[in-house]
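ok trying this again, last paste got cut off
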Amino acid sequence: MNVNRIIPVRHDDPLAAVHEFLTAWWKSIGLQAMLAPIEAVDRSGVVTQPIDQLSDIERINPFAPLMLSNAAGLVNAFVRDRAGQHLAVMLRPCELR
């Protein structure tokens, strides 16, 4: 299912707006885990990995200019390993193809 939303951006900070949206969405639908582009702690890059804590949303960065791998290949294992959980996956348009 494809759902489109316009997210209001305040203070010229689109990343904060995405974090705010994802936090509210996570809480409202009761997510248990999400596969998403996560910034490395040292900000040396972004890798797609699962998060299962609401606080990890602050590390998500869908705007990173370079991804080292295609996350679409990780979805099957992510879903299989968490059967029965309420999950979400964040992919870029190029990864959906």
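PB: full thing came through this time. The chain has a mean pLDDT of 88.
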